[in-house]
Amino acid sequence: MRWLLAGASGFLGNALRDRLAGEGHEVVRLVRREPATSTEFRWDPYAGEVDPAAFAGVDAVVNLGGAPVAPLPWTTRRREQILASRIATTGTLARSLAERAGSDPSPVYLHTSGIARYGTRSGREPHTEDSPAGSDYLAQVTVRWEEAAYPAAEAGVRVVALRTSPVLKRGGGSFLPMQLAWSCGLGATLGDGRQRMPMIALSDWLGAVQWAADTPHAAGAYNLTIPKPATNAEFTDALARALGRPRFLVVPKIVVRTALGELAEQLVGDMYVVPQRLTEHGFVFGAPDVESTVAAALHKD
After folding, report:
1. In sequence order, what DSSP letters do the residues of 215-232 get, joined into one string?
2. Cβ contacts of residue 125 below 8 Å, gap of 6+?
3. Global pTM value
4. Within a domain: residue 294?
5. Which of 15, 90, 141, 242 is deepest in the core (most CB within 10 A)?
6. pLDDT-based confidence at 252, cuts 50/70/90?
7. How many CB atoms lie within 10 A of CB 92?
8. How many domains does the chain have?
9. What is the dihedral of CA 21, 298, 176, 269, to 10 degrees?
């Protein structure tokens, strides 16, 4: 297969490039600077411009673009950047694919979204892909993020929204500061620890991306999170056992909220989510629970 990646220089992008290249796939990518090799193509998502040659022979387009939501405070300017970066990248690729639909076999369009779509308040039943969006800032960002891909879907392109939870792998992503803190004996439960926290091992995230590209009936939104949800306390216990460190520190919610502001709700809020469509449609997790996810995250490849 020939894959076109946008946002390929980050944690997930680098991991996906390595996985695909290691399996013999051809990988090309979009860059915002002058291309340095024949596998790079220029684009300007804010201007809505993509080099048409980038799509030649492509079977799957993966968009991982978007400004990080952490750790900087959500100032007005930062909020605008978080939203604009997602809409610009997703929308530019969606419109480009829509313009090409019908004339050539259309590649599948896989774009990241966020598990934060459901908000940070959960009830007795878990959120599934059919659950309504939350009302908080980040939930509404994901709504507009996914809406930006509509032009491609309306033109007949197979579109998959990957509602991604925190992806765990040693030495990278959101797991790196956790791993360092626990290794130094500074790991802690956040608040009372009863809040459910979505997560997925990098190996399963990569597997889900490839599954979505290879599965003709895969379309629409999929929650990329473990099928057996865990609380923050269960996660910290699992990480403490894996690293051989005690768990005795607790960071009160008020401290987290004072330090991080509205962003803190992504850590102390209850996010009870399951990957209902992903499992029903045939994807099998290698790390379906918190213990196996932590083990997979710490595994040295």
Report:
1. -TT--EEEEES-SS-EEH
2. 272
3. 0.91
4. no
5. 90
6. low
7. 23
8. 1
9. 110
